[in-house]
């Protein structure tokens, strides 16, 4: 017997403590209906549990948690149970006998119960999985990569090893679900060439998935976001999956998808329209802060006036229960909504003030930006913000963090940079990219402007700092040898300093690297030229050439961005008719699904070049298109009878976005076709500062176009400029009421 033990120690260790049969116990576990029954079985059988039974117990406990709503989940209570500790210890001793799939599943469950990466069991499970890594099948490998990502190990050598395995086996992978998980996990480590290979593989496998696979589509979009690649063909295919499942998407899914779209600057008119309806239906369903804040943040920026009012009134009632991060999310959404609800702004600001010590530097910047944008004035808040920002700034050594802290300080009242801060900025300039340099320059200019206006001096040290910023900016541009690297830095640059100091050098650099312009980056370069209003005929000719040579690879959604600089800068390329004709031909099959505003701008851009497409004009001037456009033009509206008296909304009225189904030719009274004789519909629009040119109160094209199209729809349009509404002359309620009466009804002042 002793000799047998010596010869077969492994077999003896595995089998000596096992029961005669573990099937009955597994059956008992599978029949359990709550956690206590599982724990009872563990307590009674802890001395004889096998690795399969340990894994089964953990799996059952997690299944019970998944079946509960977020309010009823009790992860901490389960994790702290004495018998869970027994399971924890048993897992440590049994894991080497678990098969690969069970091992990784146990790691996943342990993490779901809140055990951190430094927990000894988590470390042991990861180490054991690493030892087996090369033999993992694609399903196990994908789940393991997801576990590592949850531990924030995206840049670890282990994740690098997983990326290498995927690279070596990419041709044989046929499961897009597993591949999409791996793509997200390894996205931070892979080369551009490998990124393109993964995108191509995804396109090949896309038709193998069911149209209901929302999670796969979402992960593909997340991968594209992670690698900063707005690849339209894949985005469009994923969008179709979301649209076909929109009635089954929950709040979390809609929120994530819209956030990803925003990061990729991908706009789907249909998805926004359908999810807006779905989110509006959810307003009465959430009565606890965590979910309602997410709804507020997701729906608020796209909500109509009525929905916005309901959202704000509900969040105001919940405001006392908001956490620090929930309050910050609400403030950010209010900024995006351009809210003027002073009561809600004051309430949220008071919560932010109370928790100010707990926020990170980037969050303090967001609070500063939102407070300034929403015109919230609080000396106490601003004093506390300045104190915290300075305390972070004094110890910071990271250029990007220093730039955002200086940016926040420059936004506060009475901005000023002392010598110590100027020296600190100068010390990090050699490490700064163009975004950091632009941020510093914008901040310094604010301080100089304040000193000049209110202190009546021109500080020499700040002017010298500006000169150094100019020098490092030009130096960085001159050293740049890759268009893709340059584009990452310049694509979001804006402001006076960039336009005055670096724009010309940037264009020279683009011209030097313009042979690298291709179907992937051509729309971005065109957008940059439109935004900067800098005419470079060589760049525009190169753009036109790339379009003509690679049009089949350019997605129709990118065509407007490509055409825009030729329209805005009044320039025709050498192959003018061929260029515009090729662009329109690429677009024709998409005219019916393009965003209505995008289609109008496209028609306008081509019209300025005296290029008119019959298909495009037919697409714009028809009832269906105007109905879609109408749904995007939000306002306030009212109906007046022939005596200028308001009519109640009834069956004879048609709200914006819900046009009557008319099959006749276009006429100028579409929206008013069901109104009583002599009645008219009034559309009232408030125009904020973004509707006007920066230097003079001249209305910009978008608002002017909106007015024209509402008039085509049968509305009398009244636009209220912000500089009139916020003027001293309209500082009282009575004055504003008189102003509205005069604009809407043509009446004189009230007698009150």
From TrEMBL:
GO biological process, one term: mitochondrial RNA processing
Organism of derivation: Balaenoptera musculus
InterPro entries (alphabetical): FAST_kinase (IPR050870), FAST_Leu-rich (IPR010622), RAP (IPR013584)
Keywords, alphabetical: Kinase, Mitochondrion, Transferase
Protein name from the UniProt record: FAST kinase domain-containing protein 1, mitochondrial isoform X3
GO MF term list: kinase activity; RNA binding
Subcellular location(s) of the protein: Mitochondrion
Keyword Transferase: yes
Keyword Lyase on entry: no
GO CC, any one term: mitochondrial matrix
All copies of domain RAP, residue ranges: 682-742
Gene: FASTKD1
Main location: mitochondrion
UniProt cross-references to PROSITE patterns, sorted A to Z: RAP
